[in-house]
Structure prediction request, 664 residues.
Amino acid sequence: MISKTEFTQEKVVVAVSVGLFILFSFLLSGFFSASNLIGLIRNISILGILGVGMGIVIIGRGIDLSMVSILAISAAFFIEMLNAGIPLTGSFFIALCFVLLIGIVNGVLIAYGEIPPIFATLAMGLFVYGYGRSQIMSADVAYVPDEYTDLLDLGTLKPLGVPIEVYIFVAVCIVAWFFLRKTKYGHYTYYIGDNYEAARNVGIPVRPMIVLQYALSALFAAIAGAIVAGTILSLNTRIVNSTLLYDVILIVVLGGIGLSGGKGGVSNVIFGALLIGILVNGMTIMDLEQTHQNLIKALILLVVVILDTIFNQRNEQTEKQGDI
Amino acid sequence: MKFFTKHLTKIIVATMMLISPLMVIAQEDPGPEISNKALEGKRVVLMPMAMGFDLAQGWAHYIGREVRYWGGIFETRDPNWSVEAGSQALTDVIASRPDVIIVHNPDLRSYVKLFKRAQEAGIYVIQIDNRSAFNTDAFIGSNWEKLGELEATAALRFCGEGTSGKIGLIQGEQVNASSIDQYNGIMNIIDANDSVEVVSKPYSGWDATKAQEVTTTMLQQHPDLCAIIDFWDGTATGTAAAIRAAGKTGQVRLITTGGGEEVACKMLNEGTIDAIVSTEIPKQSQAINATIKTLLQSGMPAGTMQLFLYTHEVVTTKDDIYPGFCWSLEKNAADTRDNT
Prediction:
């Protein structure tokens, strides 16, 4: 018997994405071409990588609002160290430690300090941005020094004609998928997200696991930062003031990783990102005005959320404490 | 009395000697005193869209240096790209009754009511770079429509015979005066020329990463573009990255505008951008400085005049730049450190 609830949000998103894809392929010349589709995936790679990191944290029933600040400041810190004459490997190692430290502090504040993740990471995001802008950077843009521009120019790297960003995105997805589905730590993440108390009662090391999750999201944010810096050869911290963080949460939740935790996976992030990617790509080709683009984006999202409510009606069984 | 007549000549001479310095003073230039009286101790507050970017740093340096030079007090406020924070800061600034407020508008409408309130409170309001829908004592900055025309003229040069004549635009924001006016200016020229057309005009939201993304799509769709006009050099780094990634550097020519900081000269020299219409921040700041002094010395109540001082701008390519054409944030910062 096919129950109604099998038509999950993930499937709604896939259906809407496929619908848009077919529609655009017929209506827009140049949309359905290998190069445009590769460009489309390239364009969602940064969003997608952040989404995968955010997804892991949300599955564990947390949220990381410091990701975009970490993205910006880790890359800027790395560039500023190069500018200060610190060798490449040293700069890389220090930046990596910096990123992991932020992630670990986030995790410790949440797991051991029992501060709600939304507040801990919001404060951490503001702190990282504020510290970076005032103590590390002299202006809001950090430029890769001339002697490293050839070495660090990721933008022109295109093995087999596919931009390097796409490979990195795929690699991040595979690593995250492996972590979530094939390791015990991944399973622990689901248990913790599903029922924190029960997970602790059966002996899962819940606190170290939470620290691990935030270290991973910080790391993924730094990878996204490396892509931004490596393709534009500079990093403008204005990205922190953009809507990127909301877009990340959007694709994760849209894709079907509920904010209440314990469900979903990497595929959900990919589908959420693809929907946004197809939509934005199509609207850019159509050359729509900015306000119209925002309106259509909002409408499509509302449709997805409404369809989800129709197909997956909430009742006492599916409702869970902590739903936002 | 005898003593008096006897020494009359001496007394006259002595009196003359006593008075003479006063007479000399009376003949001296009265200007400095008038200027000092009008300016000394006056408070000037600058509020750009954010303090951390090149334009704001430039204004703060050149205006701050001058205000301190004539004995005024110079302050800045940093809304860090947030319109809400800006409104709050502006409200607080007005309550503290400075003499001059200099504001860099984020959009056409947000601060209009506050400008009215400030002028009613007797505070001179100078708007810079981005105009608003309300005319205050002065606007100093680019005539963005004219600037757009200049950019389009540069594009025409790159899109002559043998090219597709297709031009792409990377606009800023739909609510921002510099973006809207720049677009109108560009279209004035493009519409008047049958050999060229704008084939795509997405928005960057002033974000370099977004500019890179929309340019990637644009180049995919129109690989034969001859030129892209990006509405700000801050996002042109992203646009240039997309052009580079598509292997079209030198083929798709990039035209942009900015404050003329050193990075712009570097990008011109490297061929990352092909032409820039510089708003020349040091020159623009001079006009702002002159306006501050004029307003303070005029004695007129705030809101009497409505001045529009547009910066003289030209299209600059790699061949036009000369040493000292661009100004340097780094050098300014060093100057400030040395002088404090």
About this structure: Residues 57 and 246 of chain B are 34 Å apart (CA to CA). DSSP finds 13 helices and twelve strands in chain B. The interface with chain A takes residues 50, 52-54, 57, 80-82, 171, 173-174, 200-203, 205-210, 212-214, 216-218, 220-221, 234, 237-238, 241-242, 244-245, 247, 263, 329-330, 333 of chain B (CB under 8 Å).
